Amino acid sequence: MPPITMYTSGYCPYCNMAERLLKSRGVTAIEKVRVDADPAQMSAMLVRSHGRRSVPQIFIGDTHIGGFDDLAALDRAGGLVPLLQGTPPAA
Fold first, then answer.
1. What is the pLDDT of residue 76?
2. Sign (positive/negative) of CA torsion 68, 5, 24, 80?
3. 51-79 burial by CB neighbour count: b if 16+ within 10 A, else e?
4. Which pLDDT value is given to residue 89?
5. How many distinct structural domains can be found in the chain?
6. Is residue 91 in a domain?
7. Considering the domain boundaries, does residue 89 fall inside one?
8. What is the CATH number of the domain that holds 40?
9. What is the pTM of this model?
């Protein structure tokens, strides 16, 4: 399984929902990066997510998923599990 990184803040209900969805798909480890506690991490998230400011910002490996709504849409479309299994997204 590729590494999962989630940029988050102290209280974020969408971050919690994203974590629950990922865990329901077999994810056991999520690297959580707090952007509210460290301005350098916020800057890194902005660069990595191409300017998206909201949390969560979710990455599976090097693939930027986006926020919770994007993650849920990917799951509904059947693309989340293959990505978690290491299959790259279709171009």
1. 96
2. positive
3. eeeebbbbbbeeeebbbbebbeebbeeee
4. 60
5. 1
6. no
7. no
8. 3.40.30.10
9. 0.92
Helix (H, G, I), strand (E, B) or coil at 83: helix
Task: Take residue 26 and report the two structure tokens written for it.
Answer: 């077999």
Per-residue pLDDT of the chain (91 residues; tens, 9 = 90+): 899 999 999 899 999 999 999 999 999 999 999 999 899 999 999 999 999 999 999 999 999 999 999 999 999 999 999 999 987 666 5
DSSP 8: E
Concatenated DSSP letters of 24-63: HTT----EEEESSS-HHHHHHHHHHTTT--SS-EEEETTE
Domain containing residue 16: 4-84
Residue 90 belongs to a domain: no
